[in-house]
């Protein structure tokens, strides 16, 4: 009953980061540039991290070398016995539009419906600028305002129109009162507004906005969204978040720590909830990354126990949620029996130099 939460992380990250180059050297000396090399490095890191609490600091490096060798050896054994990567099932794509004529008629209806939601003044302002080409300066004079204020208002109105257009085109009434503001905040691409409106929290729970707002979120290149249901998806999630971390200026060691944590929360989804979603974003106010793993599975019955070191309910492979927590700066678990689990974790970028 009730949501339980666990937060905080301890400081094992730097130690692990220090091991990364060494582990990479050991693995590469055995597999060269084999595509699996990065996976093997991460697998090694995961195992070392899992064992770290039981190992004296001075012994960690030797333990890591031995583990790297074992991981590589078992990888080859596995390769020899069966093929690991099965071909991906059909990629689902949007069907090609059946009839452009009908679509554009629907488009016009949706645009009319969207404009209909504005007040007469708002409509005049948008149409004067967008259709008649009246400049913001001229509009400012006409409305007794400043060009900057007019531009800002036009920006907000365009975002609202875009959201209303998507709602109208969906031919569905949004399920909650928050959907329209959320879609408008997405369309406006304003980070602060997005936070004020609670866009990310809403998207985690609202299927309507996920679908209708899809074109708006996908266009945001700095947001990673990966649906997770298979082992292959775990790899995709890890790689996508790693790319984002690189774009955000994290160094190679930090990229590995972050993507290893992503592997663990994604694996947790596959093992316990069967399917879920991993998203990652830049932090809005400081250099860093936020990763959210959400599922609608059975929930974690005993979070305190699940977060204890050494606790794994599956085969001992990997470091589980306690390990993921050690790799990140903040770690929060919200879980509810029968409704699912949301894990939110962040890592800050070190100041350069
Ligand atoms: Zn919604």
Index terms:
single chain; 353 residues; alpha+beta; Heat Shock Protein 90; 2 domains; 5-stranded antiparallel β-sheet; 57% helix; elongated; disordered N terminus; binds zinc ion
Shape assignment: elongated
User: What is the fold-level CATH name, i.e. the topology of the largest domain?
Assistant: Heat Shock Protein 90
Major beta sheet summary: 5 strands, antiparallel
The structural domain count equals 2
In the CATH hierarchy, what is the class of the largest domain?
A: Alpha Beta
Radius of gyration: 24 Å
User: What hetero molecules are bound to the protein chains?
Assistant: zinc ion
Q: What percent strand? A: 5-15%
Characterise the protein shown here.
The protein is an alpha+beta fold and 353 residues long. It folds into two domains: 13-84 and 221-348, 2-Layer Sandwich (Heat Shock Protein 90); 100-218, no CATH class. It contains 16 helices and five strands. It has a five-stranded antiparallel β-sheet with strand order 1-2-3-5-4, with helices on one face. Helix 1 (13-31) crosses helix 14 and helix 8 packs antiparallel against helix 9. The longest helix is centred in the middle third of the chain and has 24 residues, at 147-170. The radius of gyration is 24 Å and the shape is elongated. Bound molecules: zinc ion.
């Amino acid at each position: 009953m009730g949501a339980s939460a666990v937060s905080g992380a301890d400081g094992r990250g730097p130690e692990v980061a220090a091991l990364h180059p060494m582990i990479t050297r050991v693995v590469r000396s055995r597999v060269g540039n084999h595509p699996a090399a990065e996976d093997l490095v991460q697998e090694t890191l995961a195992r070392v991290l899992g064992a770290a609490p039981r190992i004296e600091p001075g012994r960690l490096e030797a333990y890591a070398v031995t583990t790297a060798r074992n991981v590589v050896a078992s990888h080859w054994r596995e390769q020899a016995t069966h093929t690991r990567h099965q071909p991906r099932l059909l990629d689902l794509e949007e069907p090609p539009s059946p009839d452009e004529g009908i679509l554009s008629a629907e488009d016009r209806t949706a645009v009319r419906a969207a404009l209909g939601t504005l007040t007469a003044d708002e409509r005049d302002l948008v149409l004067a600028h967008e259709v008649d080409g009246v400049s913001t300066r001229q509009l400012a004079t006409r409305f007794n305002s400043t060009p900057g204020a007019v531009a800002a208002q036009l920006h907000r109105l365009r975002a609202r129109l875009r959201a209303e257009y998507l709602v109208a085109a969906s031919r569905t009434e949004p399920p909650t009162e928050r959907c329209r503001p959320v879609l408008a905040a997405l369309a406006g691409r304003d980070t602060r507004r997005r936070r004020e409106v609670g866009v990310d929290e809403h998207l985690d729970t609202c299927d309507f906005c996920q679908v209708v707002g899809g074109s708006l979120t996908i266009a945001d290149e700095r947001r990673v969204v990966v649906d997770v249901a298979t082992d292959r998806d775990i790899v995709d999630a890890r790689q996508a978040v790693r790319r984002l971390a690189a774009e955000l200026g994290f160094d190679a060691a930090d990229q590995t720590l972050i993507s290893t944590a992503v592997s663990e929360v994604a694996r947790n989804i596959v093992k316990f909830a069967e399917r879920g979603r991993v998203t990652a974003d830049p932090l809005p106010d400081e250099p860093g990354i936020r990763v959210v793993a959400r599922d609608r599975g059975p929930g974690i019955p005993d979070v305190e126990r699940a977060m204890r070191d050494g606790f794994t309910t599956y085969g001992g492979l990997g470091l589980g949620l306690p390990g993921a927590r050690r790799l990140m700066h903040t770690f929060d678990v919200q879980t509810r029996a029968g409704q699912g689990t949301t894990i939110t974790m962040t890592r800050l970028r070190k100041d350069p130099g």
